[in-house]
Specification:
Blueprint lengths: L1 E4 L14 H14 L4 E4 L12 H18 L5 E4 L3 H9 L4 E4 L9 H8 L3 E4 L18 H18 L7 E4 L8 H9 L12 E2 L5 H7 L8 H14 L3 E2 L4 H14 L4
Parallel strand pairs: 1-2, 2-3, 3-4, 4-5, 5-6, 7-8
């Protein structure tokens, strides 16, 4: 899954692709490099980010989404949003998936909307919001069990709203309300999160915990740390990797799959 941020303030590439023309060029590059899905986001979810609201998010998102859909009619397009009006506009404009970093917590209209659309729904584990999540990292003695339980609970709420189990894709939310040590524990025990019938998506790309391990403050310089995480994920059976650097990570996952064939 290639990341396309249509924002001025995302943590590693804010402002680079925030016009429809730039977004289309990046989408074309990522598809040519081997991306199976493109994930478009118009609201930064980095720690401390300000929420811009549905109207501004739609203004940023829809022109780019329409251009990419027209140029690449067969591409699978995901939209990263936690607001139901944005998801509705995106689906009407040609999006295929909804990727919700709040797992349905933020907007009560999201789950019924997804149920009615019947589209794939990335349900991510998180706590709080961009302003508060860094202070919500108490998971007791087993962060993996806590995240797995929260994903199951959120899935039950989604299914109660009419979302079917086969629509769901889980994301444990690396970097969202988790310390460096907790992120590493989740990665070390990924097999516990890989559950039958629910694909697992992982979004490690350029994140702070990689910078902490590598002592690398520059987000764009964290490619090799990201590659190591992606190799680990491929070995564990993770289905989808959400990354900025598509071409090198495609090579990493091909090689990892040859070394650790799943099934």
């Amino acid at each position: 899954m290639g990341v396309i941020n249509l924002t001025p303030d995302s943590f590693s590439d804010g402002g680079l692709f925030n016009t429809p023309e730039r977004a289309l060029r990046q989408a074309t590059r990522q598809l040519a490099a081997g991306a199976a899905v493109l994930d478009l986001g118009a609201q930064s979810t980095r720690p401390g980010a300000e929420e811009v609201g549905a109207e501004e998010e739609i203004r940023r998102l829809i022109p780019a989404l329409k251009q990419i859909r027209a140029a690449h009619p067969q591409a699978v397009l995901s939209v990263d949003t936690f607001l139901a009006p944005v998801a509705q506009a995106a689906l009407e404009a040609g999006a295929d998936w909804i990727n919700d970093v709040t797992g349905g917590r933020r907007d009560p209209a999201m789950l019924p909307l997804v149920a009615g659309a019947g589209c794939p729904y990335v349900l991510m584990h998180s706590r709080g919001d961009s302003k508060t999540m860094d202070g919500l990292t108490d998971y007791g003695s087993d962060v993996v069990a806590a995240v797995l339980g929260a994903l199951e609970d959120a899935s039950a709420r989604a299914q109660h709203a009419g979302v079917t189990r086969d629509q769901l894709i889980w994301d444990p939310g690396l970097g969202f309300a988790k310390t460096t040590e907790q992120n590493l524990e989740l990665l070390q025990e990924l097999e516990r999160l890989v559950q039958p019938g629910v694909p697992l998506l992982l979004g490690p790309s350029r994140k702070r915990f990689i910078g902490a391990v590598l002592d690398e403050p520059r987000a764009k310089a964290r490619l090799w740390g990201t590659a190591a995480v992606c190799a680990r994920a491929a070995a564990a059976g993770v289905a989808i990797l959400r990354v900025h650097d598509v071409a090198p990570i495609v090579q990493v996952t091909k090689m990892a799959s040859a070394l650790w064939p799943i099934g």
